[in-house]
Amino acid sequence: MVAGRLKFLQEAAIENVKQILDIGSWHLKQSIEFASIFDNAKINAFEPVPESFDLCIANLNAVDDKKKKRIKVHNIALSNEVGEIPFFPVDANQSSVPNIGASSMFRFVEGKNGTMFGQNLNQKEIKVRATTLDKWCEENKIKHIDIIWMDAQGSELLVLQGAKKMLNNTRIIMTEVGLQPYYQGHTLKADIDKLLFSYGFKELHSSFEINVPDYEANTIYVKR
After folding, report:
1. For a 10 Å CB count at each end of the chain, is N or C smaller?
2. Does residue 12 have a pLDDT over 90?
3. Under a CB-based contact definition with an 8 Å cutoff, are residues 171 and 222 in contact?
4. What is the C-alpha radius of gyration for the chain, rounded to an integer number of angstroms?
5. Residue 204 CA: distances (Å) to CA of 3, 173, 211
6. Residue 157 phi, psi (nearest 5)
7. Average pLDDT of the residues in 121-136
8. pLDDT confidence band for 157 (50 / 70 / 90)
């Protein structure tokens, strides 16, 4: 999946990639793919859902030591606030399919609990630890980000609002964007565009692809 998205970037844009963030990792597969493509990159993955975090760790333990030492997984949510927040994972035991990847910081809009996927998903409520990307980078002495890979299930704008310092030092953002809401509070592409354009990013229109018809898409923003 990563390789298929990188094809939209020019060679110069992906030279000297050293720092990658995988936000909303779910299973860590994209982090592992990044580690395979960029031999010298460090990858930090963020996954707040305990079951998904455990899956990330299991998949990390299955890779070779060379990749493993370059990938770190953090059981934390990135948002625009710091502290404990409510989170709404898909309850695999109470859903038509165990699509834990649809877990979100938000509840589903009534009547849209996975129907656009042809699924019937039910959520439970838990508490997770949240921080901002700016705070996390400051604490971990990270001053520059080459690539952000983000699938935050409707909370993408909140993640970016918590990264206003680091957006000045970020090269590429590869993200899912909402077209119309199916979560309560779902942030949409128009607002993401507005924020990122104000920081000097441009969208690679050739990279825009519909993920779920009428509801969500994938796109790439690069610093001008």
Report:
1. C
2. no
3. yes
4. 17
5. 16, 10, 16
6. -65, -40
7. 98
8. very high
Residue pointed to by tokens 């229109």: 205
Position 171: which residue type? R
2 and 149 Cβ atoms separated by less than 8 Å:
yes
**Which of 175, 126, 120, 123 has the alpha carbon at shortest distance from 152?**
175
What's the average model confidence in pLDDT over 185-192? 98
pLDDT at 159: 98
Q: Residue 100: pLDDT above 90?
A: yes
Those residues whose C-beta lies under 8 Å from the C-beta of residue 49, and which sit 6 or more positions away, are: 26, 87, 89, 100, 103, 126, 128
Cα 117 from Cα 119, distance rounded (Å):
5
Neighbours of 21 (CB within 10 A): 29
DSSP 15: T
Contact indicator for 201, 223 with CB cutoff of 8 Å:
yes
Domains of the chain: 18-82+133-223 (3.40.50.150)
pLDDT over 90 for what percent of the chain?
97
Phi, psi of 4 (to 5 degrees): -65, -30
Q: DSSP for 64-99, please give it.
A: -HHHHTTEEEE--EE-SS-EEEEEB-B-GGGSSS--
